[in-house]
Give the backbone structure.
Amino acid sequence: MKRVAQIVLSSALILVCISCRSTVENSALNDQESLETRVKSYEVRARSYEVLANAQNLSPAYSSPQFRNHSRLSGQNLRMVYLQEANRYRNLADQAKKEAEAKKKTNE
């Protein structure tokens, strides 16, 4: 029962993050202030996914050797998904920073 609850909560969290991502990406970001806000939000999301990956790795159900390879959605597989999402948001933050710098140079 505990394991099912963890999987359901993880799935719900992923769905919430996906819906938030589409909202941020679809909004109009034209001025410098919005670019900085976008950079901050991407960095926060990257840190959040890193925390989820660490929690996934350190939780008791997955740190025990007898439970590690029993589920396709548990342990290292789900941890790698979280780390990939963290890297993706970190790359988006870097791109937004470069856009902000380029915009500053053109405004000056």
Observations:
- The chain is about 80% helix and 0% strand.
- Residues 55 and 79 are 9 Å apart (CA to CA).
- Residues 75-107 form the longest helix (33 residues).
- The mean pLDDT is 75.
